[in-house]
Amino acid sequence: MVEKDVRAFFRDNTQWSQLLLLAALVVVYLYNFSVLPLEKSPIRLEYLRNELAFLNMGLAGFVLSAVSVRFIFPAVSSEGGAFWVIRSSPLSLGRFLWGKFLLYILPMVLLAEALVILSNYFLE
């Protein structure tokens, strides 16, 4: 099932355009952290960086939720009219959903780590 989902994802042209939009979103997100004028702030720089690093985790959560809504949420419904094949197979619905979960958890964790680490690097 996982192999079929990966092949279907990379064959669909609409997924590629969405992936490019996602990459642009990540670049803009990281660029905004790199050009923040922190030195001009009236707040002490240590406190401001600490607050921004804390808020960064929430902002990364918003980016991850947008990615999840676009790619993960419709993963089950992307089976379309062929869902009856999955329901009639010996594969239980629970194992089917766990397979979908395990397929998407690693890319999402890597994206979350990349967003938080790179943006905190730009904040110094």
Describe the structure.
The protein has about 120 residues and is mostly helical. It is built from 5 helices and no strands. The model has no long low-confidence stretch (mean pLDDT about 80).
Average of pLDDT? 80
Order of helices and strands: HHHHH
Radius of gyration: 19 Å
Q: What summary fits the major beta sheet? A: none
Terminal Cα separation, in Å? 43 Å
Strand count: 0
Beta fraction of the residues?
under 5%
Class based on secondary structure composition and strand pairing? mainly alpha
Short descriptors:
124 residues; mainly alpha; 5 helices; elongated
Give the gist of this structure.
The chain is mostly helical. It is built from five helices and no strands. 78% of the residues lie in helices and 0% in strands.
Q: Which helices and strands appear, and what pairs or packs with what?
A:
Layout: H1 2-11, H2 13-34, H3 45-72, H4 83-88, H5 93-123
Helix pairs in contact: 2-3, 2-5, 3-5
